[in-house]
Amino acid sequence: MLKIFIYFFYLNLSSAYPEVMPNNLNLALKQFGLRLDDGNHYVLSKNQLRSGKQFQLANIIAEKNGTRIDIELTKPIVESEVANMINTQFDLILKLYGPQFTPYQGAVTNISTCTEEYKPKSKTIFVLGKATKILIANSTDRFVLGVCEKSEIKLKAVIAFVYDSDQSELVQFRIFIPIDKFVEKDILQLLKKIKIDKK
User: Fold this and answer.
1) CATH number for 39
2) What are 171-190's pLDDT values in tens digits?
3) Model-level pTM greater than 0.90?
4) What is the DSSP code string of 55-69?
5) In angstroms, rounded to a whole number, what is the distance separating the alpha carbons of residues 99 and 85?
6) 187 vs 36, 106, 155, 197, 198, CA distance in Å?
7) Number of structural domains found in the chain
């Protein structure tokens, strides 16, 4: 069902706007009524807006000192659909760390799976006054999730979905931090300080 939704979403895109590049993350988020503490210090590398018959989609990427924030924003989203959409996305991510078929020429099928220590961990924090589930997962240095080999794990990824009911928009945050710089409480604090910006 999700694949069908995504297919028709992109099929219905009627126009793609060129990238508009403000000089920091908060200037990009301002047009969607959001603000991130310390967002003024994150330099944008992508700020792309697309508008379709039914939805608007924004893709934003910003970086600071090796930490990268990927943001995908979709609107309008009816609040009654939010929980199901978020659960579906989290299930897809968790499956990346589950049993996987590995290439093998022969009659035997090899299946690999992550050991428990390398599987994503979930937590619940309050964002915009609402209990919000997040995932903390391992990533390669190319921002690819689903990695289970210690030698390939270079980044920690913190994934959160935030819904702003006033704007009817669903925002996905993926924050990638180098393993040697990852401090969980600092990243959780960053997410907790997402604010509504209606100025």
Assistant:
1) 3.40.1000
2) 999 999 999 999 999 999 99
3) no
4) -EEEEEEEEETTEEE
5) 23
6) 12, 45, 13, 20, 24
7) 1
